[in-house]
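Quiz preparation item.
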């Protein structure tokens, strides 16, 4: 895994930053959490790529608040293009 930022999908719209921080902090230091309101996804940045990889392996496909989470490595936005709202970019 290259980076330390993760795309977290299939969240309930009511999921809070605090809930995701608590969940991911079991796998290392959480630097930043961003939830896209009304879209059911967000991004979690861990302090190290190894921590992000551990969290992704442990949590991808797991149940969180009644939903099966999908977790992937976040991809950086393409230069010169405005990212789509539903894209897995930070």
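Solution:
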């Amino acid at each position: 895994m290259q980076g330390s930022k993760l795309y977290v999908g299939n969240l309930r719209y009511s999921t809070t930053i605090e809930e995701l921080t608590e969940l991911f902090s079991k796998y290392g230091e959480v630097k930043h959490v961003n939830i896209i309101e009304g879209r059911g996804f967000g991004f979690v940045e861990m302090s190290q790529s190894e921590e992000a990889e551990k969290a992704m392996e442990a949590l991808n496909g797991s149940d969180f608040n009644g939903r099966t989470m999908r977790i992937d490595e976040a991809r950086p936005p393409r230069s010169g293009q405005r990212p789509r709202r539903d894209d897995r970019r930070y």
